[in-house]
Specification:
The chain is an alpha/beta fold and 282 residues long. It contains twelve helices and six strands. 28% of the residues are buried.
Length: 282
């Protein structure tokens, strides 16, 4: 095989795009580059990377990052298109997430109201960066994800949290099981900063924060985390997780009973003022 200068290429590595999402990303990057007659160094210059780095991504020796995907979209004029590299990158990342969660995240970003109940760990929307890093570091240590995937998980959490700062921010109702407060994640300073973050959330005009104490017992209607979204058109959907998968439910026959149970949870739980006092005490 020859490159555009006529030089025989003996070390070209052919990838099967069907072998993995990363291979499909690299094969597409190479195909679009060659269609434009660019060498790897030229594409690298356009994207802010070395030709060696581009080669490593094209041959699946390096994982693409969000920054690289966005740079590729800019170089190829794909920003804002349906089939851009950023969307393809997110599909790679979602492969390490629970089934159902990627679709949930897309809807979360445009929700008018978010109601969540969490057990054992702070919900992603409320986590500090240090708290998130402790969680993903434990996953890396257990071999569940790579260090690169951990970095992208941290970026994903930060992107999700941006929804609370948008111009038309959603109403956020968050009820945390007391176990979220009692379970230590990282050092005492990490937890102190996390508690401070909760107090900041409680001060926001579009947020209501409550803690469901252990003493609620059977008056707590949920045993597992659940999130209910109200979309701009007032339609509802619910997301829940087990240990192995997530489930996004759109059927009102199943979502409305969850919404009723959530209202009961809010009524039974201490008020925000009482919950804030509990957080400050902890």
């Amino acid at each position: 095989m020859k490159d555009d200068s006529g030089v025989v290429m003996v070390n070209r590595k052919e990838l099967d795009p069907e072998s993995s999402p990363q291979a499909a990303f690299g094969a597409r990057l190479r195909r679009l580059r060659e269609e434009r007659g660019w060498k790897q160094e030229e594409l690298g210059d356009r994207m802010g990377y070395s030709g060696t780095h581009i080669s490593a991504v094209e041959t699946d020796r390096k994982m693409p990052t969000l920054r690289l995907a966005r740079s590729a979209d800019a170089a190829f004029g794909l920003v804002g298109t349906v089939g851009n590299f950023e969307r393809q990158w997110r599909e790679i990342q979602y492969g390490t997430l629970l089934e159902g969660f990627p679709e949930y995240v897309r809807h979360e970003g445009r929700a008018a109201e978010i109601r969540l109940y969490e057990v054992g760990v702070m919900p992603g929307l409320l986590q500090t960066p240090a708290y998130t890093k402790e969680l993903v570091a434990s996953e890396v240590k257990r071999g569940e994800i790579s260090a690169e995937q951990a970095d992208e998980r941290i970026s994903l959490v930060a992107e999700r949290q941006a929804v609370l700062a948008r111009t038309s921010a959603p109403l956020l109702f968050a009820v945390l099981d007391e176990s979220c407060l009692r379970r230590p994640i990282g050092s005492p300073s990490v937890m102190r900063d996390q508690f401070a973050r909760l107090l900041e959330i409680a001060d926001l005009p579009n947020c209501v924060l409550q803690v469901a104490p252990f003493e609620m017992g059977v008056r707590r209607p949920f045993n597992l985390p659940v999130t209910i979204l109200t979309l701009p058109d007032r339609s509802l959907m619910a997301y829940s997780e087990s240990a192995q998968r997530g489930h996004l439910e759109r059927d009102n026959r199943f979502v409305l009973p969850l919404l009723t149970a959530y209202h009961q949870l809010q009524a039974e739980a201490p008020s925000q003022a009482q919950s804030v006092a509990m957080i400050e005490q902890v």
